[in-house]
Structure formats: C-alpha cells, structure tokens
Amino acid sequence: MCSADGGHVLADRTNTWIALAPYFFPIYSVLAIGVYGVCGLFLDVAPYRSLLYAVIGATWAMHLSFTCWMIPKGQPDLHYGGTFFSLMVIYVRQSCAACGAADHRLAAGDVGGIRTRVAAECRRI
C-alpha cells in the first residue's frame, strides 16, 4: 500500500531465512567493514587494519552474546521452520562465518606472529 503519507508492505507469510537473519547476520561487523572500505577510498587505512580486526571481533562477540541471550527468551522467529531446525541453521551459519574469517586470515598469511603483534598493540594502546 502506498500513499502520499508513506507506504508499507503486507505479507501473509514469512521465509525461514528472513526470520532467522537477525540471528546470523552480524550487522555491526558488516557496518564496520563498510566504514573501513569507504574510508579506504579516501584515506590510507592500512595502518588501522588491526583496529578493524579488533572492532570486528568486538562487534561479533556482542552479536554472538546477544544471540545466545535472546534465543531462550521464547522468540517466535525460531518457530517458523521448527525450533531445532532454526537453532541448527543459526549454529551452522555462525560456524561457517567463523571458519570463513579464519580462512581469510590464513590465506592472507597473517597468522604467523599474531600473538606478538597483539601483545605489541596492547602495549601501544
């Protein structure tokens, strides 16, 4: 429905993937990557890559903890495809995302000496 005052969409049913998207799509991490990418168009952001990784880690940890906190609260989103199926989709999607992030770090050759770099960054901060 659309009018001069605005509009909205009415749906008589939902999709399981759409209903579960808030549980496995870390919006704040994606926003952080987007901000980093946009800034990279105008500035040299390479020295801040460690900060990006820290922000992604913090936002992803917040997303995972919030997801774990909300699941036992009786969310109706979990019932569309069945609770067990929904929990498995959330778990598998989160696991795939974590493995993909780790694989990206391995492919970039960025694992060697990571403990030393993290300690150096902590001392610097």
Sheet bearing the most strands, described? 2 strands, antiparallel
Order of helices and strands: EEHHHHH
Annotation, overall tally of beta strands: 2
- Our Rg estimate from Cα atoms comes to 19 Å
> Segments where pLDDT lies below 50 for 5+ residues?
none
Estimated helix fraction: 55-70%
Class derived from helix and strand content: mainly alpha
The count of domains is 1
The coarse overall form would be extended
Question: Approximately how much beta-strand content do the residues carry?
Answer: under 5%
Discrete helix count: 5
Q: Mean of the pLDDT scores?
A: 77
Sheet with most strands: strand arrangement = 1-2
Describe the 3D structure.
The protein has 125 residues and is mainly alpha-helical. It has one domain. Helix content is 66%, strand content 3%. It has helices at 16-24, 27-42, 49-70, 83-107, 114-124, and strands at residues 2-3, 6-7. Strands 1-2 form a two-stranded antiparallel sheet. Strand 1 and strand 2 (6-7) form a beta hairpin. Helix 2 (27-42) packs antiparallel against helix 3. The longest helix is centred in the C-terminal third of the chain and has 25 residues, at 83-107. The termini are far apart. The mean pLDDT is 77.
Give descriptors for this structure.
125 residues; mainly alpha; 5 helices; 3% strand
Question: What's a quick, concise take on this entry?
Answer:
With 125 residues, the chain is mostly helical.
Topology:
Layout lengths: L1 E2 L2 E2 L8 H9 L2 H16 L6 H22 L12 H25 L6 H11 L1
Antiparallel strand pairs: 1-2
